Amino acid sequence: MKNHNQKLKIEKDRFLPAITTLSAKFKVDGNSWKDKIKEIDELDLKKVAIFPTCLDKEQRQEMYGLLEKTQIEEIPFVHLRSDMSLEELNYLVERFKAKVFNIHTERQWPLKYDLSKYKQMIFMENAGYDLQVQDIEKFSGICLDFSHLENARLLFTDRFKAQENLLLLYEIGCNHIAAISKTKQATEDGAYISFDKHIFKDLSEFDYLKNYPKEFFSNFCAIEVENSLAEQLKAIDYIVELS
């Protein structure tokens, strides 16, 4: 853990606003994924991450069609779903220049198709089931979700220590960044109580990031919140200047 008085001093271009899709499945505040896509040209964005994790195949095709009509040149980071086919990943790489993917453990969400062609681009997220060596070694390393890690630090000491040890052993190829609430609350699906959340109301909910070393931040840090892209850009500015 780093000193609270140190600055992150991380290059702004490592951070990506993201098209998230929780509102397609759960009743949450924030902008829908279609609203976020409409913002792309308004904000003159050329690059975003996408989280089509709450969209079925038909909805994902609609998302890609809408994205193709924007000025987006690159989608370097994609959160995969377990039902995505090799052809879908080929499309994301060829059309949108995807460079990294993340997934949850196969113990939680078994893959429907063989994606080993992209093994070196896929990173295992520290979400859901406790992350284990056998999960990570099937792919290229870890997708570190900072809010999940911080929630473990606040609630599950043993889980936090285990995850922290793994972070020293494997490449961190990409990151998710969400907010940390001042108080515990139910998750979007009501499954458990936690501090991490996918919408922020105050920029100070990202202050926890100053506890983590610069080495934990990859070249692909996606802002995983339901807030508008305009609000996400403000969050990126805040995180970069965090001290």
The total number of structural domains is 1
Summed over residues and divided by their number, the pLDDT gives a mean of 91
CATH class: Alpha Beta
Terminal-residue CA separation: 14 Å
Give the ordered list of helices and strands. EEHEHEHEEHEHHEEEEH
Rg over C-alpha atoms, rounded to the nearest angstrom: 17 Å
CATH architecture term: Alpha-Beta Barrel
Poorly predicted parts:
1-5
Largest beta sheet: strand ordering: 1-11-8-7-6-5-4
The largest β sheet comes out as: 7 strands, parallel
Structural class: alpha/beta
Strand content: 15-25%
Task: Give a count of the beta strands, DSSP E runs of length 2 or more.
Answer: 11
How would you characterize this protein structure?
There is one protein chain. By secondary structure, the chain is of the alpha/beta class. It has one domain (12-240): Alpha-Beta Barrel (TIM Barrel), CATH 3.20.20. Helix content is 29%, strand content 18%. The chain has helices spanning 33-42, 57-68, 86-96, 133-136, 146-155, 157-167, 229-240, and strands spanning 15-16, 18-19, 49-50, 77-79, 100-103, 122-125, 142-145, 172-177, 179-186, 193-197, 221-223. The chain has a 7-stranded parallel beta sheet. Strands 2-3 form a two-stranded parallel ribbon. Strand 2, helix 1 and strand 3 form a beta-alpha-beta unit. Helix 5 runs antiparallel to helix 6.
